[in-house]
Amino acid sequence: MSQTVKAIAESINIMGKRSGGAMKERNPAPIQEMAKEESKAGAAYLDLNIGPARKDGTELMPWVVQTVEAVTDTPLCLDTTNAEAMAAGFKVVKNRANAIMNSISAQPERMQKLIPVAAEAGCNVIALLWGPEGMPRDSNERAAMAVDLMMALAEAGIPNEKMLFDPIATPITLGADQIASGLEFLSMLSDIAPGAGSTVGLSNVSNGVADHLRKYLDRTYLIMLMKYGISTAIVNSYDAELMAICKGERADLVNMVHGMMDGNDPGTAGLAGTALEHYKTYKVLSGQTVFSESWLEL
Ligand code: THG
Fold first, then answer.
1. Which domain holds residue 135?
2. Rounded mean pLDDT, 25-33
3. Residue 266 within any structural domain of the chain
4. Domain count across the chain
5. What is the mean predicted confidence (pLDDT) over 5-17?
6. Rounded distance, CA 4 to CA 198, Å?
7. Which of 100, 173, 231, 261 is deepest in the core (most CB within 10 A)?
């Protein structure tokens, strides 16, 4: 059986062109269309990202949840940095045990407010490896933060199987070192928290890169994460090729990149279709080629 990744569709968010305006105007139709499109594309979860929503989060999150639940049964992933909005959203979610809380970070205030809400809901929880001092610097800091989060969640009765650790994907424009450290953390996860799952905001990796190039970075990075058993990913479900990788339908690309990760360079001569683009992109993400927007022309 081919390896699969559960896709958490990212596009219903306050920053998005279609969904952002609709959220602000409380116009359900565009959001409901997107929810149906993302579900049809094969999303296992729909991320509903209202951002910090300082003014009206406790009213906006329940509205978005109910707007989406009116047209689809796809489980939801509630995404906000506003703890009160998160709690208000979970009050109305129909299928709470299958929903995801996105996210609880290793910041004491956020843990205190949200862990009881998650325990009560019986939902899945994204444990975001972001601490009081911000981004962890290497895989050891990620591991230490993961232990803190796991202990606090376990103390509230939340089992490892409900946890999804997010090592935080960083843009390739900042270099390949942080990417390597996220992958290294994933390779340690089954020892740190046996039975736990994992996730990343995949398109962070291509943030700030020209639009026509982003898809190669996102897809290749997902395949690299799959080598370490990533269980879910927050993705652009409108990229059909990316969704095909999630569904286990691109064993050709997966085998090529995983082979390269094991040190087997296939060379460029026999590469067909988009294999050449993904080959070159792997060289960038693994730090063998220095990033520049002309990497596909090299
Ligand atoms: N980890 C976790 N949650 C997260 C992130 C993460 N939630 C937010 C974010 N990162 C993942 N979600 C998105 C949503 C949209 C985009 C990127 C990440 C995005 N949108 C396009 C853009 O900005 O160009 C299109 C916007 C539009 O529709 O117009 O890139 O890391 N746990």
1. 6-248
2. 98
3. no
4. 1
5. 98
6. 13
7. 100
